[in-house]
Each structure stands twice: as structure tokens, then as C-alpha cells.
Amino acid sequence: MQFLGTDKYYLNPELKEIVNISTAMEKPLLVTGEAGTGKTQLAFEIARALEMTLEEARCKSTFKGEELCYVYDTVLRLNDSRFGTEDSGRNVNDIWDYLGFGPIGRAFLAEDRRVLLLDEIDKTDSDTQDNLLDVLEDGSFIIREINHKVKAKYMPIIIITSNAKRELSDPFLRRCYCHHIPFPSMEEMSEIIRLHYPEVPAPLMDSALAIFYHLRQQGFEKPPATAELLDWLGALQLNDAKPPITPDRIPFLGTLLKRTQDLLQHKGVERENV
Amino acid sequence: MFLPFFYQLRDQGIPISLRHVLEFYQSLEKGLAPDLDRLFILMRLIFVKKVEHFDTFEQTFGAYFFGVEGGGIPRFSRQAWEDKAFQNWLEEEIAKGSLSEDDLERLSLPELLQRFWEVAMEQRGKHRGGHTWVGTGGTSAFGHSGADREGIRVHGDSQHGSALKVIETRRYMDYAASATLRAENLRQVLAALKHMAPAGPPTELDVDETIDRSCRNGGEIELVFKRELRDRIQVIVLLDNGGASMRPYLDLVKLVFGLMRDHFRDLDYYYFHNCVYGCVYSDPQRLTPYLIHHLVRRDPETRLIIIGDANMAPTELMLSNGAMDYFSKVRIPGRDWLTQIRNHFSHSVWLNPIPRSRWSRESQTIDRIGEIFPMEDLTLAGIRRGVEWLNSGAPPRKASRQRAVGS
Predict the structure, then answer these.
(1) Residues of A in contact with B181 (CB under 8 A)
(2) Model confidence pTM above 0.80
């Protein structure tokens, strides 16, 4: 079982090795890097390439960790005990009818090996991360209400992403494989563009890339990333834009710079240049 | 064949543990490192957990497995700092003007050393064997100069660059050497600082209460919700950022303060100089005042941490016109301001970067302030006790005596 990338996703050879190593070692892979480097996409592509089901957990700051494993629906059970289950098929005396499983639970219980994505883990607080540690390492969790241990039949391929807004705890890092995806170089970026827009004329692409990397170096609050570049190129193509594009007249600038502050700053720079 | 490499990694400051080593051998058995390239990736995955360490790892790996000349970057050890070769180099660079005083202020010590090493490598490439002091490979960078143990004194009588002044205080080296360990421990200590309180809308089902009420209701279900227990800790940090006396502790304070800022979502910080009079400042330049008057209207449950050396002229603390700023119109002695703050925030602590053993020798004001605030030093144990003070909110130990002084 080897992950070799897919037709829509440019896979850096190094990252490919990394995915394969963490798959073989059954270790969670923590992917960091700035927005638009394809952290989340990686999990989707692994699932697609290896034909596995993806279990996805988008983290929220209110998560406590347990709900990613299972949820016990007390209210439903109370309700059933009072009004009867009728023909719902649930049995009030059987707690299993009132247990629902979250993405981790589903991945552990599945009869096949799955890909488990924990997206933006840094949004959760450090207690939650600590709670998840043992679960992910042992591939098991305990349903507290009945003291039942759920053990993973097949250890899922775990991909964790983080924007590193807040630092993750050292114990957490210790138990993961960590990889920081650097921002793609110009060559890699043109590969990525080729995957998405096979028929962009080379002069337009070169010109666009030059502008793009130029803008990225201006120290904007939110520098344009891959997603913005692809949107922008799409817009340029639709409107049949002709190269060369110069920094003082960038069409559809709004697709590249999203913050007012950045737009103003860019215009300011322009005026100075003129 | 790998064991010496692991020790080199540790020497370079990458915290690897036995667990990782075992994991590595396990992965070898699985045949995950068929070639050097993949060995590189495999090792990096297993041993390096932080981006900051990536570069160091790559250097060390290159030196060990590819025999990149020079044996990688040198250890940032005290020996290296006190080494003649390094000092000579610094002197030369300054004399040549390729290192300005600004550079010295700006560059961190490891960066300086790194530069030196790069130059050394270059020179070694040019005239092979010419510079015997580089040593021949391996990581013992410059040998030990043994006799010269006074620290670096390249720049005359330390009237210039503050970076070099800091070099002279040996304390700095110790922090730099063990920074990784300290940061990690510190984080665990800070994690103990919590204030759990019910918060938010009542969304959590109170199962016990629901069943109880439902039974009383004759089986008619009555759902009772309660508010969740959440960590509602609010922290205010007052930071002494002025005065030469705080200078030697800059890095230590930075480390602690940086970790606090990362750790607590709800953290406000203000600056002051030496002692507090009437206001603290919301910017490091101390231009935007924030009145104590406002400060003591904040939620008294807020945890207050003051970081400062509490070292000042006794007049600053005791006299009503003691404020260092001549234009200050404040006519209340610093001590009274501090007492006022302390009385409002029952969960407060003063963290002093000066080691506890030197407090009474260093300045009499330290003891005086220690009577107002519980005071701890910035060691791991000290901070741990500080966290205990903050959690318990106990009155200062010398409460009775404080009253006596205050009256």
C-alpha cells in the first residue's frame, strides 16, 4: 500500500515518503504550515488514492475530545423511558441504542482501515489535546457510562493539521510525526497550477507567478496563498487577460488580497513607485 | 552505528528520548530506510518535533552521514564562548568594521557563533590546515581554552553593546543551555493555573437533578440544564521593563512572559518601571498610561502576576515624592499603591528574577515588597509555588506584619 499522489494534487516527493512512513509506523502525522499549503487536502487525497473512507473532524474550541469518540444521548433515553420507544426499534434498557459515535469512534469501529482527519487541532484547548493523546496512541477509548473499551480494529491513518496559532504541548508533539510544509517554490507552484489549469499559456503563468511571489514578499497581514492564486488565475483566464501583468495594474486584485488593510497598503506602495 | 549520532543530536539541543530511539529501531526492522534519503526523512520524523530544530537536525545529519566538512555546527557551549579563537574573531570583525555595534546588539549569541563558524569553515576551505584551531572534524568545536575563564571581554570595559554585557553575566549561558527543558517544564507548571467556574449558557444536562425532579414530578420529565464548568482564568501581568537592574534577567523574563502569553487566552499585560505609582503602561515604551484606579476596578478574581526585581532606591518605595519621574505629580508612596493593588487582587504573586538566596543582599526593598505580595523567584520551584499562591488566593504569610508596617 503506497500513497503516490493523485491527479489533482501535487505531491512533494518528500511528503510522499513521510505519509508512507507514518502509515507503516501507525503514527499520527501532524502537518503544520501556513494556510494554502494543502494540509487538509492531503488527508482527502490520501483517502482518495488509497480508496479508503475519510472520517473528518473539524475542531472547535468547545470540543472536549470525548465527543469525537462517542456521544451518549441522555435526553433521548429519558424521553423514551417516559413516552416509550414505539416503533423506533430502540430498547430503553440497552444503552447501546443511545450511543452515537464521532469520527474517532467510527474510524476505530470500522471493519476497514480508514483515514482520520483532525483538522485544526490548535483550535481546541490543551486539555482536549491531552485527552486525545492516549486515544490516538493506543487506538482505544473507554465509554465511561458502561466502562466499555472500544479498541480500533484497524488503526486508522491519522492526519492532524494545525495552523500553529497556539503552540501544541510537547507531549502531544512527542507522540506524533511532525512535518512542516514549506510554502511551495515557484517550480512546485507551476506544477500545482498545471494540475488545475492544464491549458494556461506559459507567458501568462510566468507573469502571474512573478506578481504572486512579489505580493507575498510585501509583508501583508494575510499574504495571498495557493487558493488565492488559483482563484485569480481562473479569473484571469475567464477574462482572457494578456500578459504581462505589472504590479501597479493587477486585475482582480480582490481575489489575491482579502484584507482592506493590505489593499490600502498595496495601493500606497504603488503610489510611491509612481 | 547510529548511537553516536543520537548523542550528537542531543548535544545540539534536540530533545530526543529513549522512546524515540526504540521507535527508530523498530522502523528499521520494518525496512523503512532502504536508502540514505529515506533514512533522513525517517529520522527527522521520529526525532524532530519542532520546526525550530529542523535546521539543526539537517546540519547534524549532513555532518554525520555525508561527512560535510567541519562536523556540523558547533555546540553552543560555554567553552565555545570563552574560546580564544572566537574572541579573536569577534575582535577582528569589529576592528574590520564588518560587525557593527548594532549587529552585536541585534544578533543573538548563537547567531554570532554561527557566523563565526561559517567564516571559519570558509577559511578552512581556502587554506587547508592553516587554521589549526578549527580542530579536525567532530563536534568539539574549538577545543577548551581552559585558562581563560573570565568570559568574553572583546569590547573594552563593557561600555558598549549590551549584548556583550549580557555575555559577561554567566547566568545567561546556563539559561541558553537548558532552555528547551525549562520551557517544557514551565508549560506544565503553568497548566496547573486554572480557575474553573460555571460559564456560558446552561447547555449541559444535569442528569442527577433531572432524574430527581422528574421523580418528584411523578415521572413527568423535567429537564434541568446547568452551565458548563469552564476554565475562566483571567490573568494580568505587570512587567518591570525598565532600569538597568532588570537587564541581566531579560531573557529569563522573556521566556516566562512569552510562555504565559501563549498559555493564557485571557491575558492582559502592562509595564512599569521599578515601582508602581498611579498608573502602569500598556506599551513597552511606557507612553500610554493605564490608571491603577482602573486596574483595581477589574474583576478581583483575576490572577495578578507582577514580574520585577523589586530592586529600587528605598525612597522610591517609601516616600510620597519618591517617583523616579520628576514630573510625576503623584504624591502617594509606591508602597501604598502596591498595597492597594494587593488588597484588590487576592490572587496575586510577585515573581522576582533575582534568585531567592540573594534577595536580602541585593536590596532591602525586596523584603519590603515581599511583605506586601507573596514573592517567589523565577525558578521552576518558585513559579510552582507562585502558581499555588495564585490558585489558593491565600493572604500573604506576613499579613500581620504588613499591617504593622502599613499603620
Answers:
(1) none
(2) no
